[in-house]
TrEMBL record:
PROSITE patterns reported for this sequence: MOP
Taxonomic lineage from the root: Bacteria, Pseudomonadati, Pseudomonadota, Alphaproteobacteria, Acetobacterales
InterPro entries: Mo/tungstate-bd_C_term_dom (IPR008995), Mop_domain (IPR004606), Transp-assoc_OB_typ1 (IPR005116)
Protein name: Transporter
Organism in which the protein naturally occurs: Gluconobacter cerinus
Biological process annotations from GO: molybdate ion transport
Pfam families per record: TOBE
Length: 68
């Protein structure tokens, strides 16, 4: 599958925390941890499990930058 999003970061799922309707998926991308909130249904449809390789795909209309 091809996606228009250019920020596709490949990593390994390190944690899945299921809630009532939403799961928090933690992906380790070369030592950087990215967490995503997705539906429990999506977790099942994608057959996500700890240890499986997955992509964090980031598509945003804006990115904020801050400094001290």
């Amino acid at each position: 599958m091809k996606l228009s999003a250019r920020n596709q970061l490949k990593g390994q799922i390190t944690q899945i925390v299921k809630g009532a309707t939403t799961s928090h998926i933690t992906i380790d991308v070369n030592g950087t941890i990215i967490t995503s909130a997705i539906t429990n249904e999506a977790v099942e449809e994608l057959s996500l499990t700890v240890g499986k390789e997955a992509y964090a795909v980031i598509k945003a209309s804006s990115v904020m930058v801050g400094v001290d």
